[in-house]
Write a structure and sequence with these properties.
Elements: H1 3-11, H2 15-24, H3 32-44, H4 50-66, H5 76-85
């Protein structure tokens, strides 16, 4: 399928063309557990800018709020930081 066919499909509202393109794209994505682990590593890096570390802890808090069962995966020091930020 070329770009013109794709754009014509969009303008005609043909969602089957979009599905076809999505089916062709096979992407590996990180699991939520892996994202959480990466955020904890980033937050734990004392060399990282303070503003970045604040964002990391906020991201960790959002993940834990949505998926409380993942809190058990956090190190105690990160849990203490979360409790200080509440």
């Amino acid at each position: 399928m070329n770009q013109k066919t794709f754009l014509n499909g969009l303008s005609n509202g043909k969602k089957d063309i979009i599905r076809e393109i999505i089916d062709l794209m096979n992407q590996n994505i990180a699991s939520l557990e892996d994202v959480l682990t990466g955020k904890v590593w980033d937050y734990s890096d004392k060399q990282r800018r303070g503003s970045k570390r604040q964002k990391d802890i906020a991201d960790i808090m959002r993940i834990i709020e949505s998926f409380p069962e993942l809190k058990a995966r956090l190190p105690e020091s990160t849990i203490e930081s979360i409790n200080r930020n509440l």
